[in-house]
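Protein details
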Amino acid sequence: MALIFGSLGNTFSGIESELQEKPVIGVIDEDNGSFSNTAFSILTVNANVVFSSTNVTDKQKGLEKLLQEKGVALIVIPKNFTQSIVNGKPGNIEIYWIMRGAGIMDSISSSVVSSILSSINSNISQELIRNSTSINATTVLHPTLRNETTYFKSKELVDMSPERITSILSSQSTFIPIVMMMIIITAGGMVISSMALEKENKTLETLLTLPVRRTSIVAGKIVASALVGLILAAIYMIGLSFYMQSFQVSGETNLAAYGLTLTPQDFLLIGISLFVTLIAALSLCMLLGVFARNYKSAQTLTFPITMLALIPMFIIMFKDFDT
């Protein structure tokens, strides 16, 4: 636990320092109007602009420059941005996000850029109020609209922001470790408890004197507990899936259209990794059960193995494998 809390402390301190850094962005301003100038000045003050242009045809050059500089987003202010707001319609801002990872720390820079864009929205709104224009109240309060496109894992995800992708993938990455933890608690507890009971009732010595291979005895205990654990895991996964579906609303993002769903091959790999992890965890539980003095003390020995299942969840939660 001390190691986990120490790692979390270092992670949070890294998040704080990263929040203070200016995000690297590119800007294409085709409008050159009063409101676009306001937006451009706010962007240059609060971010590190490594690419600037006035022609949207330079979009590919801007994206390549941002990839070299490890940038976050290319912001395009199209023509008639100012005129659209003056006419009472929100002005569109096109944002092309470059997303490198789905961890919490990977989305810090994009969150900073989102706050800068919110600042642009509020500044334009204040300017409209000061000028006492006859524009409708909805446009005054929300003078800008975002058209977001995210480039992630060599895929172009239209109408998707990094925050949305991170929230979707984080729910998937935490699902399996939680299931693994429940399996270890149930099946591992069975192995340790059986070992402790056999030691306490002196039946382990009798079992070892029988003309049966010790490997067969160990394998029988592990396989039996693993099968029970897998059955419990299936029941738990079904229940948890219904629980998660109860929070889903209509109009939810179609993940299959963006290639963010798990394929049958992915489920096969997950099943194999779950089974191998379960066998390894139950083997450790059996070793710990040998050191248990009695049945009561054996109940607490599953805690270290449970922590081993949670460590990968915390690692994936904060950082992506690619970053």
About this structure: Residues 169-246+253-318 form one domain. The chain has two domains: 21-160, 169-246+253-318. The mean pLDDT is 79.
